[in-house]
Design goal:
Layout: H1 7-69
């Protein structure tokens, strides 16, 4: 029997594999949490972006309406009239 197949060596290798799997599962859980957090943040930023676009459109309309309602310089009478 070789050293690689002794019960002690097999037990050590099995323990090392179990340890690696546990470590990888921990990092997968950590990465899953990070991705989920980023997904929540991205959704929040997308909602903010939509709101900001709506506000900009509203402000542009208000400015355009204000420009149309305001007297133009050619419509004003000079001060000496």
């Amino acid at each position: 029997m070789s050293d690689a197949t002794t019960p002690g060596e097999l037990a050590r290798r099995l323990e090392a594999l179990e340890s690696r799997i546990a470590y990888q599962e921990h990092w997968l859980d950590t990465l899953d949490e990070a991705v989920a957090g980023q997904e929540r943040r991205l959704s929040q930023l997308e909602r903010i972006n939509v709101l900001m676009q709506e506000r900009l459109r509203h402000q542009q309309r208000a400015l355009q309406e204000g420009d149309e309602a305001a007297p133009r310089p050619e419509d004003e009478l000079p001060p000496h009239y």
